Amino acid sequence: MIYLDNSATTKPLDRVVDQTGYIMSSVFGNPSSLHKLGIEAEGYVSEARQIVADSLGVSKEEIYFNSGGTEGANFVISGVAKALKRRGNKIITSEVEHPAVLRAMEGLEREGFNIVKIPVDSKGMINLERLKEEIDASTILISIMAVNNEVGTNMPIEEICRVKGDVYFHSDCVQAFGKLDLKGFKGEFLTASGHKIHGPKGIGFQYVKSNSKVAPLITGGGQEKGLRSGTENVAAISGLGIAAAHGEKNLLNNKGYISGLKEMLLAGIESEIKDIKVNSPKDGIHNILNISFLGVRGEVLLHTLEQDEIYVSTGSACSSNKKGQSHVLKAMGLSDKEIEGAVRFSLSEFNTKKDIEITVEKVKEAVTGFRRLGSFR
Amino acid sequence: MNEEKILIVRCGEVALKGMNKPYFERVLVERIKRNLKEFHGVTVKRTEGLIFVRYPHDIAQNKLIHQVGKVFGVSSISPAVESESNMESIAAEAIKFMDENIAAHGTKTFKVEAKRADKAFPIKSPDIARQIGAEVLKGCKVLSVDVHKPDCHLFVDVRRDKTYIYRDKIQGFGGLPLGTNGKGMVLLSGGIDSPVAAWMMAKRGMLIEAIHFHSYPYTSPRAQKKVEELAGIVASYCGRINMSVINLLPIQEEIVKNCPEDETTILVRRFMMRIGERMAEKAGAMMLITGENLGQVASQTAEALVVTDSCVKMPVMRPLIAMDKVDIMDKAKEIGTYEKSIEPYEDCCTVFLPKHPVTKPKLENILASEAKLDVDKLVEEAVNSAENISIYPN
């Protein structure tokens, strides 16, 4: 199997699988329980919290576990809106955010909030000048992703933090955490997920800078200091900790290694296949390569490659089962044909040079085959 | 309390079938039994033109009614209570029945409708109604009679041994019991129409086999999953369906390479019919069923249907042919296939769509195009490549 869909989800590390299994079978206590089984479970949660905090260079008091990126985005956006609605009603975001952010924003829009979506250029980069101009006294939140999940554009989050003033800044770092060094993040909120970094699904965390005003999305037993009630998913939290530590330790090595594979993939496709358009920017994140094969349908390419156990994705996995085009590629100004032919390869440290060689060869075969047939369309 | 409960099941049209009546009723009883086989302790018997489902009181009545209601040939269902056929017993049961009604539905007014199937019974129907009405008025203090707009009709059906008392008549789908009208092969896509077509033919007593065409990798495996789930919904009415799944891509490739683009759809359609006919013969089905609907798309114009039909000998049933799309959609909603049908996975029909399909194909042109293909070989290969799946009711 050649798995090139790591932006959709990743294969959990063996140690993550072992640890979650062990905790589920042996340390099943509720961290809120007073007895020692509960305290033991709480220990695992606390350990993971420290690892995550260290990887961001923040205090462990500022880390809150939740169910992942979608919950994180919804929590920050609705929670800040609720907490600060008397201060203002303007929220700034971008056209290319993940649906978790965009749908939450649309919900607020229906409630009367003024949502401003900053456009992007042909490389998926937001117009920073526009963003600066939009910040005013009524602005209560800016939410911009660190890395775009479909094409890999690195957004200027440090720059935004420099110009944002007192306005709260949230960054959806689901595609960045574990891959980029996020130490020194100057915003108030950061969202990340376990299953994008070889951890378990259904777990994520939220960085909330101390003293930031935000209302909880889920209330109940008061876990996570009242910001996220619900019995802690101890096994998954611990697995997330292991994956985060692994990512942190191998950050530089992986970046070099995966960049090399990506360049090899790009060079191979560019030399072997005509009529393509590279949608990922050259300076984008090292593991995402989005390419349009003109005159080909991305989904057909996907199903052709899966017959050789090569797994890729068209646009983002979350929207490929909906009719309609990728909102990201559309915002970047791609034509219908270019959007239809777009395929995302997203790599991980577990891919090899051999994987890339085979992929280039099979993609070439599939594209040639389709173009021979598809010419009449 | 450990008493038995009763559903009275009526068969509408079945009752009209003269000499065949006992046969149809026997099949209907078998179908009801089959639909209820997951419930223990249920008996199904027919007496005096009615079918009685008797079941232990701990089985949820609405589940049972739902399952019986899915049996074709059932016109209506009434939850009933039974009493001895004498006036005291009838009155006592009627009072008990109405008390439960008052508790469950807040019934305030009622009217008794009596019927005497046993003419040997000494009291005439209007008198039964009057006397039972008087007893119920006395027995249940909070009720009054309203002969014009009662909250509830209390039906009293006096028969030789027993009398049945009931309130509701829950409509069934009608139709004829499955298996009383041969076997048909439906061309099942993932759309709205074909599952409805299959259902309608099954409702007239026809056993259903299915064939599904895809174009993997040009279509998603999820599209096939969707069709399997749709077939499962149809199977919940007509029982297990054998479905053959065939990849049309080799044929579509040949057509694209050799034939005019604007004829693609109609040529593919003719191949589907030919393959369908072959698979039908194999399965012992005597006709094809499609969801085609006059004028809905290019391949369903009158001209196109003539061209499509001319490649097979088997009759092609098109139960939706003259229905409006909205009515087909309503039917799909009623039988529960609509929500599944509108999930957006492409089936093979939409992949190789030409830009401007021919809407009035001429048979001689189509035959000329097919002359460029080895039709028999392509059909043979497709038939041999069929994958068989058993679809169970869901």
Search tags:
heterodimer; A: 377 residues; alpha/beta; Aspartate Aminotransferase, domain 1; Aspartate Aminotransferase, domain 2; three-stranded antiparallel beta sheet; globular; B: 394 residues; Alpha-Beta Plaits; VC0802-like; Rossmann fold; 3 domains; six-stranded mixed beta sheet; 14 helices; 15 strands; elongated
The rough form of chain A would be described as: globular
Largest sheet of chain A: 7 strands, mixed
Strand content of chain B: 15-25%
Q: Report the C-alpha radius of gyration of chain B, rounded.
A: 27 Å
Detailed description of the structure:
The complex is a heterodimer of chains A (377) and B (394). Chain A folds into 2 domains: 2-9 and 251-374, Aspartate Aminotransferase, domain 1, CATH 3.90.1150.10; 14-249, Type I PLP-dependent aspartate aminotransferase-like (Major domain) (Aspartate Aminotransferase, domain 2), CATH 3.40.640.10. Chain A has a 7-stranded mixed beta sheet, sandwiched between helices. Residues 316-322 of chain A have low confidence and may be disordered. The longest helix of chain A is centred in the C-terminal third of the chain and has 22 residues, at 251-272. With 377 residues, chain A is an alpha/beta fold. In chain A, 41% of the residues lie in helices and 14% in strands. Chain B is built from 14 helices and 15 strands. Chain B has helices spanning 21-35, 61-69, 87-105, 125-139, 193-203, 221-238, 249-258, 264-283, 302-309, 325-335, 338-341, 348-351, 363-370, 375-384; strands at residues 4-11, 43-47, 50-56, 74-84, 109-116, 144-145, 152-158, 162-166, 170-171, 183-187, 207-214, 241-247, 287-289, 316-317, 387-391. In chain B, strand 10, helix 5 and strand 11 form a beta-alpha-beta unit. In chain B, helix 5 (193-203) crosses helix 10 (325-335) and helix 8 packs across helix 14 (375-384). The interface between A and B is medium-sized, with 14 and 15 residues.
